[in-house]
Amino acid sequence: MRTAAVMAVLILVAATVIVRASGRGEDVAAPEDTAAVSLPAATASPTTAAAEPTAEMTARSGEIPSSGTVGDGSWALAAPVPAAAGVGTVHTYALRVEGGTGLDADASAQEVAQILADERGWTAVEDVSFQQVADPEQAEFTISLASPPTVDRLCAPAQTHGRWSCRIGEDAVLNTDRWTLMTPTYDDLSAYRAYMVNHEVGHFLGHGHETCSGAGRAAPVMLQQSIDLGGCRPNPWPTADGAA
User: Fold this and answer.
1) What angle do the packed helices 189-204 and 105-117 form, to 10 degrees?
2) What is the CATH number of domain 75-207?
3) Helix (H, G, I), strand (E, B) or coil at 28
4) Cα–Cα distance between 24 and 20 in angstroms, integer?
């Protein structure tokens, strides 16, 4: 009987590991990293008259803030942003924003398009370009800006814990708390947003997670920079990976 009980426990543990390893998250530790990464605690949602957290407060406090935002599950599709003729391999994407998050879909699309077209980004590294389309059915992948509870649902079985983002299947799912509040590893919100987009699109292009190549060097974009820089300095652009 004791042997049978032990075997049952081992089977349950193995099944849990398989489920947790099946997702691929932006800031969700890869299976080989889970034992080494201690996720910082999020701050509690505001329940008093205290000021709402801001990106600047995040950088100063060293804490990962939570806005308490819960989206309504509806989606606003952004109109395609006009772009120059694509070069190299052209990848199409759609962009949507969850209702109830306070973000404007078209304004978000403008910022994402600028990041993807930047000469410091994947266009220079991979000989690719990106074209936004109106219909997700016609897109190779979709960028979704979603509230933390919706991110957790869309990213499952990856464990995003209401804090992180992920790339799963044909979706790059960006957490609106991170989009608006970033994490303490950055003190520049625009740069952090560029990191978020480039990291998730990097997963779409087939790149896995990387580690810091040396103290003081520019962190690889595929490093999980939201959690820990590992001695590197923050860097949102793949062309600068590892620069001294």
Assistant:
1) 70
2) 3.40.390
3) coil
4) 9
